[in-house]
Specification:
Layout lengths: L1 E3 H7 L5 H9 L3 E3 L2 E2 L5 E3 L5 E3 L2 E3 L6 E6 L27 E2 L8 E7 L2 H8 L7 E8 L4 H9 L2 E2 L2 E2 L4 E7 L2 E8 L6 H8 L4 E9 L2 E2 L8 E3 L2 H12 L12
Parallel strand pairs: 9-15
Antiparallel strand pairs: 1-4, 2-3, 2-5, 5-6, 7-9, 7-17, 8-9, 10-14, 10-15, 11-12, 13-14, 15-16
Helix pairs in contact: 1-2
Bound molecules: uracil (URA).
């Protein structure tokens, strides 16, 4: 939702509206990296506003991207006391992971409190792509890669067609798998079904989000254009928060 910049700054604790106007006039405020002007409107959900290069956060919806390290669990609470993905996010807001990665899996996980978006991103009918890099034990043949791509029988049904690229074959093989569904432990079970165990598994892409420039363990807030792309992936042109579309 858009609001006047000086009002957004005042509610984020930068003093009276008048002193916020001074900050803007002094050139200390930027919106999406561009110096702000007095009277402009901002949407703190989709735009990044900084004061002296420090980002101010909306009290509303938050979107975080974590490049999950191994050993961290995807639940909000772990009875065994292990570190959770929510512990990795520096926020006081109650956020939750969109889907899950196994404890041993590394890679991208979106963490948010936007329940409607999470629901759509996880719903099979939207077919949001997830790209995995897998190191599988043993020599994976082209024929096996084709089987994985056409669909393999798992206990909860045959997997949907997937893009499978055999990157290298040796004592272990490296594959890149792009899935349009997200069942529990799907990649590991697919590989097991064709006779290979998984040595390591990393998710490098979730829909339009990639791990470019993010080391494993890094966490950051999504930037405005990234949030818009993510929403476009599931809402198309019906994005309820899109500019000009507000109720
Ligand atoms: N598939 C798996 O087997 N594990 C994951 O963590 C993600 C996809």
């Amino acid at each position: 939702m858009s609001e006047r910049l000086q009002r957004a700054l005042a509610s984020a604790g930068f003093g009276s509206r008048r002193s916020c106007e001074e900050l803007i006039r002094a050139g200390r405020v930027a919106v999406d990296g561009v110096p702000a002007t007095l009277g402009m409107s901002v949407d703190l959900i989709t735009q990044t506003v900084t004061v002296d290069e420090r980002e101010i956060v909306s009290e509303g919806i938050e979107y975080w991207l974590l490049n999950k390290p191994a050993g961290v669990v995807s639940t909000a609470d772990d009875p065994q006391g292990r570190r959770t993905v929510v512990d990795c996010v520096p926020t006081e807001t109650r956020v939750f992971p969109v889907g899950r990665l196994d404890a041993a899996t590394t890679g991208l996980l979106l963490i948010t409190n936007d329940g409607a978006l999470a629901h759509r991103l996880l719903h099979p009918s939207y077919g949001v792509e997830k790209e995995y890099e897998v190191i599988a034990r043993g020599r994976v043949t082209e024929a096996t890669a084709r089987r994985l791509s056409e669909g393999v029988e798992l206990e909860d049904g045959v997997t949907a067609p997937a893009d499978v690229h055999l990157v290298s074959v040796g004592r272990n093989s490296v594959l890149r798998l792009t899935l349009h569904e997200g069942r529990n432990r799907q990649v590991r079970r697919m590989l097991e079904a064709v006779g290979h165990s998984v040595v390591s598994l990393h998710r490098g892409r979730f829909g339009p989000l990639t791990d470019d420039g993010m080391f494993v363990g890094a966490v950051r807030r999504l930037r405005g254009p990234e949030i818009e792309n993510l929403k476009r992936a599931v809402y198309g042109d019906d994005d309820p928060h899109a500019k000009g579309n507000e109720a």
